[in-house]
Amino acid sequence: MTTTPSRRLLLVTHAGRREAQDLAAGVASRLLAAGVAVRAPAEDLIGTPLSEVDGIEKATVTTDSTGAATSAADGCELVCVLGGDGTILRGAELSRGSGVPLLGVNLGHVGFLAEAEREDLDDTVERILSRDYTVEERMTLEVRALEDGRPLFSSWALNEVTVEKASRERMLELTVEIDGRPLSTWGCDGVVMATPTGSTAYAFSAGGPVVWPDVEAILVVPISAHALFSRPVVVGPQSRLVVEVLARTDGSGVVWCDGRRAVELPPGARIEVERCAEPVRLARLSASGFTDRLVEKFDLPVQGWRGAARRLPPAGEGVTP
After folding, report:
1. Which of 44, 85, 189, 258 is catalytic?
2. Active site includes 250?
């Protein structure tokens, strides 16, 4: 008699990397053997080793009578992603609206969003099978682009929303508003509006600060701005940001969400960004804090540290270096 598995997992991989495909096939086989159903995006099952594993379900996205689309992760307990940060962002996109947490295994370079590395894969599968993980929420951003009050585009971002110039030889002229008041006008290559999660991504490359994930804030980081004041700004999570592409701008711009979803912006367009009500949930395997992750990913030098035994002396006494 055939029984229906009580557990199901969405497996997302980097479809362009053979190593990721081979590892995904191995992970799927182990999960299926343990009685866990495995689902994968349809594009990951075209001519890949994963397609040769018996029993893999094809994820399909349907639209109901109201026009709302289902998520590829509906009915799953976890989204397991094999790849770098870009693949994890794809997993977040595929599972949007389901509330299902993502667990990333880094096969890329830095992999800030990943919870495990390639060498930890066997242990990670065991932790998944035993449900030995915790879940934390990361804030996201909602974005709307308008032209003369008419909607052009709406989306969301886990890392960042960027407004960038469309042509390399031209410069954008942008005015940034915070909570309905103008902050500054910049002639620039663009501006990044990032979450704390995205502070170590594009915003970091543009010179923005690193913000711990549990700090609720939104970053505003100009890109190559020709202005006396062009410092990164950190605002509260309830702030509402607006970027206007000035009508006198010579050329068009582009708004990007996590580097995955984009639309062209004509002169005069306005881009509204604010905190989104729906966070992304990430599965955690380790209890170590963000400081450890930062040191590991950036290979930061740590010398002469005395650890937890070091403490401040009583008031009035000197500090021994």
Report:
1. 85
2. no
